Structure formats: structure tokens, C-alpha cells
């Protein structure tokens, strides 16, 4: 696999080795030993999640203030723009974000470690997203940062207004959000 660093050193783009022929393709989407050796990802994954969304659905920016989750994200149908925001106050990249296109075609994955808010927007007609999480979902600790916080100025590249859940509409700006030390 190929590990691509991003502008935020802890966030990584992972390109798996894909073996294809006229029958289709095969790839290892996760191998504990390879991820540890090549990407330094040694966290244990305890939960797998799967979502399906239509075009312009924007999910995020989510995080859990306790039971923080690292996430290994990939799109298995369609295309998304995936975003990670550093919300670790002691980090030199606090308040910075990166984005990456993940698609069924490019088979890339994004490693979003604990300490980041995460979200994505669907740029194809439909997308299915799978992600592995390093801690269990705990709704009592879930928080949401406003997707269009002007201080973050995330370039979502949404065609028109995004489709949001009530929870995401009620997100708060980073300046008012609970963040990690």
C-alpha cells in the first residue's frame, strides 16, 4: 500500500494495492500488520459503520468529546469529499483542515485520528461510505461543529445548498465548541 502524508501530519491518505483483471479486482481494505508497519496505525478498531447518502448530503463535522474515535474512512459506492479538522487545542495545526476525494474508483482511504472533527459531502448521485472506528459510538459525548464556520472556511465544493440533518444544522462554530486539550 502507499501512504500519502497530508498537510496535517497525523492525517494520512492510504492507497491500497489493487489487483485487477477482466474478472474484477481484489484488495486488502485492512491488514493490521501492514497498517502498523507502513502507516504507523496501531490503534485497535472496535466498530465498523456503513452509511448511504444522496448527492449533496453533508454529514458532519462530528466528533466525540469523550471516547474519541479514530476513523479509517473509504467510499465503496460513488464519490465523497472527506474532511478532517484538527480540534486539539495543543496541536500546532489546531483549527486547520484537510480534504480528500474518496471514491469507489480511486479506492483511497483517509485515516482520521482521534482528536479531529470529521465530515463528508456526497459529490456523486449516491455514495456508500464504510469506516472503521477505534472506540464505540457514544451519543452522549457526540458533538458537531458547524459545517460552514467562516473561521474554518472549508471548501466543500457543494453544488447548491447541502442537505443536513437537524443535528448538523445545530452545530456550533469552532470558537464555541468543546475541543480536546
Give the secondary structure arrangement, pairings included:
Layout lengths: L1 E4 L6 E4 L2 E4 L2 E4 L4 H8 L7 E8 L3 E7 L6 E7 L1 E8 L10 E7 L5 E4 L3 E7 L3 E8 L8 E3 L21 H4 L12
Antiparallel strand pairs: 1-2, 2-10, 3-4, 5-12, 6-11, 6-13, 7-10, 7-12, 8-9, 8-11
Protein name: dTDP-4-dehydrorhamnose 3,5-epimerase
Catalytic activity: dTDP-4-dehydro-6-deoxy-alpha-D-glucose = dTDP-4-dehydro-beta-L-rhamnose
Function: Catalyzes the epimerization of the C3' and C5'positions of dTDP-6-deoxy-D-xylo-4-hexulose, forming dTDP-6-deoxy-L-lyxo-4-hexulose.
What would the keywords be for this entry?
single chain; 181 residues; Jelly Rolls; six-stranded antiparallel sheet; five-stranded antiparallel sheet; 2 helices; 7% helix; globular; RmlC-like_jellyroll; RmlC_Cupin_sf; dTDP-4-dehydrorhamnose 3,5-epimerase; dTDP-4-dehydrorhamnose 3,5-epimerase activity
- Per the CATH scheme, the topology name is Jelly Rolls
Structural class estimated from helices and strands? mainly beta
The ordered H/E elements are EEEEHEEEEEEEEEH
Return the domain count: 1
- What does the radius of gyration come to? 16 Å
